[in-house]
Amino acid sequence: MTDSSNHKVAKPANLRRRILAGGAAGLTIAGAPFVSRMAFAQTGPIKIGFPTPLTGAFSAEAQDQVRAAELAVKEFNAGGGFNGRKCELLVRDDKLNPGEAATRTLELIEKDKVDLIVGSLSAATQLSINAVCKARKVLFNSISQSDAINEAKDWSFYTFHEALTPHVTAGAVARYAFPKFGKKVVYLTADYAYGHEMVRGFQRAGQAFGMQTLADIRHPLGTSDFSSFLPRIQALKPDVLVLCNFGRDLVNAAKQVTDFGLKQNMKVIAPVLLYTSRQAGGADAFEGILGGTSYYWGLEDRIPTAKIFNDKFRKAYAGAAPSDYGALGYAGIRSVLQAITEARSTTATAVANVMRKMRYDFYKGSQSYRLCDHQSVQSVIIVESKSKAMKDKYDVFNVLSIEAPDENNLRTCDELGHKVLS
Amino acid sequence: MAEITLQLLMLQLLTGLALGAVYALLAIGLSLIFGMLTVVNFAHGAFFMVGAFLGVYFLTVTGSFWFSLVLTPTAVGAIGLLCERFLVRPLYGRGIDYPLLLTFGLSYVMVEAMRVIFGIDGVPTSTPSELRGVVNVGFGMFPLYRLFLIAATAVIVLALWLFIEKTRYGLIIRAGSRDNEIVRVLGIDISKIWLLVFGLGTAIAGLSGLLAAPTRAVNPEMGIPVLAESFVVTVVGGMGSLVGAVVAGLLVGVVFSMTSLFAPEYAELSIFVLMAVVLLVRPQGLFGKAGLMG
Asked: Is this prediction's ipTM beyond 0.95?
């Protein structure tokens, strides 16, 4: 059965190849200008697959990732590409579903023949994308927070992690906030990998300050009403309430926490204080909420590359400021494209070998990948949402502090289970 | 685990009632349409979502929450009227799954339309300034707006009850839900009544969208979980029963709220467990048998 059907497929393919060959010969004879185009067609564009949740609770963040990624691609193509090869971005909607993410990634690799994968926006989907890439030895640069992706059991030589990890982000926020605001903490946590990892990050860093967890209240991903969790939080009388959720969950939680007057009695912290959530939730809901972020456009007054990146983004998108996750889309694409150019190759091993050694500063100051797990070592910015003295609608945070890139803030290679490549 | 005090339980109960108020309103609209037209309106969540978007829009344009409170149900009800007249009406007499599939498709169209008009990020909302802040309810602090939600629901339910019990149209609606053949024989144009009821049901859905808007993020997908929840309420209360919708709405809100206090992980599951138990013990729902006004 299999044999005969293979033959059936093979025949038309051969036929087509013959026609193509004939056509190519004809073109070569017809004129020189076509020769270079044929050479171009043989290698084709560099294809980057970009799975991300365009629909669902994180759609606002995902859209900005795509916008910034397209900016990086345009920039690369305007600079002539690599060996005349332009880059093509293939964006796919993974619907925030790990199964869907795996299917889309598989399609990108098998059907669309992408050279590598950049993307994802969830601690859960990036693991399923990584699993598919790992099995097929395709390079994957993840631009979403996760701790598990660095661990030896999930990691492969082709896995890179451009985004921060919950361990580092929560750690930085904890080191900043706990000495200032008190020791008694309640967590309101989205019940999936991201939320759990954030809580763990806080608790690890909080040990040094004698932090005390009063409760870790878990809610399902995609909760629209948090009101029924709030009287208990009020009754527990914590010093700090930590919102370990993301996207629309964070918007709703911030809004309802404000409505219930919780901010009067406790400091509210979001480990990842999203620019997009703040924009969607409005100034009142986020007023005074403190958190960490991988990027805020307001860095431009102290970091030259941030200014350059912001200006490019503003020019391309009608004056809009790039978001934190958007900036990660930009950096994720630029890293791999720069590595391709330096490696003079698109094979996964060659690109990975260059990326391992790269020191880069695309938008937020110096970064590099740690050798054992390919985690991008980078700064964490501590910001606070403001509701007064805003210059324009993009001016939403005050930068309170910047924690400089430091390998010591990451979990050790040993702890992650890496032995060989350190 | 925190100490469970009476104050905390009371506050939790009140939170549940405020939550239940929105459930009840949604279920009333759904139940009204089902009880009268035997149309299972799968676009109910979408009408809720459109109500939230239009509510915020009218609020921005007129600058007044109260104007929006009048304009929103009118506009959503008008959309409902058009849908009944041109989409649902041709399907009467063809079996219950025809309008079900139609409204299911309609919900997708409405979600997509809002994505096109307002973008997929949704629109920011804030509590109307008159209703902002927290008040002391005797056993703790509670947001004023959520108290308003409970009061507004009570007013709407009362108005609806008066309309159905005390007016000529209400009489026809009640009669029509019992036996529309007889009503027709008596010389009443039943299709006009059905049009009115569909418009009324969707207007209430739109109104609940507007009322819910200040408490949560307004985005095109916000109606999807709401549809599931309002079906749970309708099934618990009994399909077609208005009293059932109100009682079950509040009950579901309180069950959800109390489960959140003791086992937050199971809060979402709890309302489906409630539905399963009710279906096992009383398959027609709590007030299912007694007819439209129970």
From this structure: no
Rg (CA), chain A: 23
Query: Are A372 and A413 in contact, with CB atoms under 8 Å apart?
Result: yes
**Average of pLDDT values for A41-48?**
78
Cα A198 to Cα A271: distance, rounded to the nearest angstrom: 7
Angstroms from A388 CA to nearest CA on chain B: 16
Q: Does B224 contact chain A (CB < 8 Å)?
A: no
Report d(CA B32, CA A179) in Å as an integer.
Answer: 57
Which of A259, A286, A396 to substitute to test the interface with B, most B CBs within 10 Å?
A: A259
DSSP A48-63: EEEEE-SSSTTHHHHH
Residue A215 and residue A204: Cα distance in Å, rounded?
Answer: 16
Q: Output helix, strand, coil percentages for chain A, rounded to the nearest 5.
A: 50, 20, 30
Identify the pLDDT of residue B292: 44
Class of domain A167-293: alpha beta
Cα torsion B6, B8, B11, B15 to 10°: value is -130
Identify the three-state secondary structure at position B143: strand
Model confidence at B183, pLDDT cuts 50, 70, 90, reads confident
Encoded tokens for A353: 């070998």
> Which chain B residues touch A276 with a CB distance below 8 Å?
121
8 Å CB contact between A67 and A73: no
* Strand ranges for A165-322 from DSSP E: 184-190, 212-219, 240-244, 267-272, 290-293
What integer pLDDT is reported at residue A42 of this predicted model? 44
Where are the CATH 3.40.50.2300 domain residues in chain A?
45-164+296-378, 167-293
Place of tokens 């309106």: B41
Confidence of residue B281 (pLDDT cuts 50, 70, 90): very high
Using pLDDT thresholds of 50, 70 and 90, give the confidence band for residue B35.
confident
Spatial neighbors of A195 by CB under 8 A, at least 6 apart, are A189, A218, A244, A245
Task: Indicate yes or no: CB of A219 within 8 angstroms of CB of B18.
Answer: no
Q: Which residue of B has its CA nearest to A265?
A: B141
What is the per-residue pLDDT across A94-145, written as a single tens digit (0 to 9) for each? 999 999 999 999 999 999 999 999 999 988 899 999 999 999 999 999 999 9
Select the residue of A191, A259, A279 nearest B215 (Cβ to Cβ).
A259
CATH tag, A45-164+296-378: 3.40.50.2300
Within 8 A by CB and 6+ apart from A408, the residues are: none
Model pLDDT, residue A3: 42
Band of residue B241 on the pLDDT scale cut at 50, 70, 90: confident
